[in-house]
Amino acid sequence: MKKKVYEFINEDSWFQKFIYTLIILNVLSLILASYKEIFGMYKVFFELFELFSVIVFSIEYVLRLWTADLHFEKGTSFSKRIKFSVSTYGLIDLISILPFYLPLFFPFDLRVLRILRLFRLLRIFKLGRLSKSLQTIMSVLKDSRSELSLTLFVAFILLILSSTLMFYVENDAQPDKFENIGQSLWWSVATLTTVGYGDIYPITPLGKLLSSAIAIIGIGVLALPTGIISSAFINRLEMDKKSEKECECPNCGTKF
Amino acid sequence: MKKKVYEFINEDSWFQKFIYTLIILNVLSLILASYKEIFGMYKVFFELFELFSVIVFSIEYVLRLWTADLHFEKGTSFSKRIKFSVSTYGLIDLISILPFYLPLFFPFDLRVLRILRLFRLLRIFKLGRLSKSLQTIMSVLKDSRSELSLTLFVAFILLILSSTLMFYVENDAQPDKFENIGQSLWWSVATLTTVGYGDIYPITPLGKLLSSAIAIIGIGVLALPTGIISSAFINRLEMDKKSEKECECPNCGTKF
Amino acid sequence: MKKKVYEFINEDSWFQKFIYTLIILNVLSLILASYKEIFGMYKVFFELFELFSVIVFSIEYVLRLWTADLHFEKGTSFSKRIKFSVSTYGLIDLISILPFYLPLFFPFDLRVLRILRLFRLLRIFKLGRLSKSLQTIMSVLKDSRSELSLTLFVAFILLILSSTLMFYVENDAQPDKFENIGQSLWWSVATLTTVGYGDIYPITPLGKLLSSAIAIIGIGVLALPTGIISSAFINRLEMDKKSEKECECPNCGTKF
Amino acid sequence: MKKKVYEFINEDSWFQKFIYTLIILNVLSLILASYKEIFGMYKVFFELFELFSVIVFSIEYVLRLWTADLHFEKGTSFSKRIKFSVSTYGLIDLISILPFYLPLFFPFDLRVLRILRLFRLLRIFKLGRLSKSLQTIMSVLKDSRSELSLTLFVAFILLILSSTLMFYVENDAQPDKFENIGQSLWWSVATLTTVGYGDIYPITPLGKLLSSAIAIIGIGVLALPTGIISSAFINRLEMDKKSEKECECPNCGTKF
């Protein structure tokens, strides 16, 4: 019977579709509840829906914990359950329902409660177990991890350099905007990502000149992560297609 | 005679060029009519031009409906005409002239009339039947449909995550700007697409830090659709070129 | 002697370097003259420099016209000179010195004079004849002309569609900003190129939703020209490198 | 013993990790010291930390100078030390500690002292000697130097052209914003890099039309450096991977 339950929650059944829909509804509910007028009118409904979601997700968690010995190959029945508990999805499953249970056992002040409630947002990552395409993206990101961390490091150095220079150049003219290098870093990020909100920008001729040089040269460097993710992703998609086609040597018929 | 009409409206004749020009003029007229001074002065002209356009497009629609049995291969004469009526271009042809005919039969209030008039904008898609290059682009978009919908889904998750976090972080400091997650989503879109109008942006140190991280990491993810469309398009253009060249094996002369 | 002059002005001599430097100085002078204080103080110098430049460029033009029969292969001596006069560089050479000569023969009002003076800016394109790398870029742009014009056409349709929709959605809420589709087009360009000055943006919920969808979907389409130019350019650079390397068949030694 | 010292400072020892950490802490200290409140409270700490850092970096510099004859292959002991002193890293090592020593020997006014102190920022480049991945990026940038300088030149011409045109178009309507071509250049950079702070933008219809055309066409050209750096970088990463795999001819077993 345990095997049947395991297959039921892991294979493409109506249970998966139900969980999938429930996650989407949870996200929608989180968004709608942020509208004060809506939350005020339908407070009871939001709370009932949260209660229902937690019950479902709790049952799902217990079932997954129970069938964990079928999920992993090696180890004792107990060690497999620990293995599930500390796996990424195991933790996500647990933490995303904790904001409901914790306040029942421990008295929290409002500030902590509010942060706790944010953990419900983790439910969105539960989609990762259900959606195959999300798994692809995550594995692509994992593959290009070393390149990404390298370019993020370079981008970080560039941000530090440009913000420090701009702080020294603009601080005299705009002591309130370029107050410290922290503010200057905010300018650097807005400029190098080309977002440019317009809340902070250089006004001195030297500052504008420096900012122009930083923008033209720096955008290329900050574009690297974008390029790497894009190319890694496209590469993966092409590899999936290629694996179907094979080249046949015209001489001896060997495939290569 | 029906065959002659069918060829006349579907082959590269002066009729196609006339329809093509008329569509462009319709778009121009729609733009010019939005200028109140211009519309006030030439109101009669705009209405006469609309009348003329609707007559031409109506004749075109009737002719296409009449010759539909030459356009499709299978089915009875009647089923072919139904087939045309519910095809994409058949619907575009019909809906883009409806705003003229409907008010003659049904009394609408002004609000509905205004929305109805927007359907005239669909005439721009009639260009798709005439321009071969537009057909290429649409088929490219169709080819990379699955990749596009996947990345749009990921972008959507990213937008939800970042906007919910920013709402919790900035709501206290800017209750009027980050009023609800809807407002926060507007900020997310403006930031992750790097448009950055500057009407809404974080002001707290934590908000700026979070926003910086979101901008640097997230832009890469939202750039994926761009990369996919670009690569799909360039791929298509290269394939068109390659199809002309063939590699000859240097050993046995076999082409492969 | 004519052949010597032809080689002198077309080969890598001090004359070319002199012309190159003079063009750069002309651009700098144009920029500096736009500063009222600087122009007021050194007005005589700017006019003397312009006089000197026009004399040099005029001599260059006369020499090129004189040696045009050595530049082209076919045709009579006279037809070759006409050929040069109507060539791109021949026209640039002529038009960029015309703002000096025309007012001597025809009385112009100030408005026309000012536009005429702008033609001096064309001198910057004279660099194209001297710099080999600029020629490469121009030929790359020529190669991908058809793809570029196609995507520009698609971008144009997208701009029209989005601006018309936004005009109908935002016109009631912001009659002064989204006054007509012209204003709305300005918003579309600022949004789809992700410049986002922040002088015009949607404020209604429907407008923000529509704008978000347009931004996310549309940026991909408008990024196409970028992608095409980039790929064409990189392709050219790679082809230049490849032409040196050749693959040798491991079986029979034939190169392919 | 000299050899042991040389190996100690150049091989993967705790000394390298210590220097690495010290550089990061120096950057953090520079950022924190820009916060007036923090600097006011912990002034003594910042000065002691700077003293400590300078002592360590000075010892490192002396050791590197002393062991320079083991680092280079050719030349006399003295010429090798000169070679190190004028090498990039030798100069960075020296200049980044100079702001401490120079004021001890020469009396400087405050303005010069402030600029001198900026040289401490150069310490961040000392990371380049320690981090292999930073060396990769720098060599990639060196490889595509010619393409980069070419596209920067083209971007420069585009900036000049667009800013001069916009100056003539917008100067009458906004004499304070588009005051001179310098201001206009600032607009060009903000527009073509798509940063768009919103402090300066066209308001006349002609200016908006011109600006739209410049934005759509120009962004492609300014995106070239980005594309080149990206492709060069990805190319390098792929080459590193490829060097491990080799193709075997299916016929005769020859690798190629």
Automatic annotation (TrEMBL), chains A, B, C, D:
Keywords, in A-Z order: Ion channel, Ion transport, Membrane, Potassium, Potassium channel, Potassium transport, Transmembrane, Transmembrane helix, Transport, Voltage-gated channel
UniProt-annotated location(s): Membrane
UniProt topology in membrane: Multi-pass membrane protein
Parts of the chain that traverse the membrane: 14-33, 45-66, 86-108, 148-169, 209-234
InterPro entries: Ion_trans_dom, VG_K_chnl, Volt_channel_dom_sf
Record-annotated Ion transport domain positions: 13-233
GO molecular function (one): voltage-gated potassium channel activity
GO cellular component, one term: voltage-gated potassium channel complex
Pfam families: Ion_trans
Annotated GO biological process: action potential
Protein's name in the database: Ion transporter
Organism: Kaistella flava (ex Peng et al. 2021)
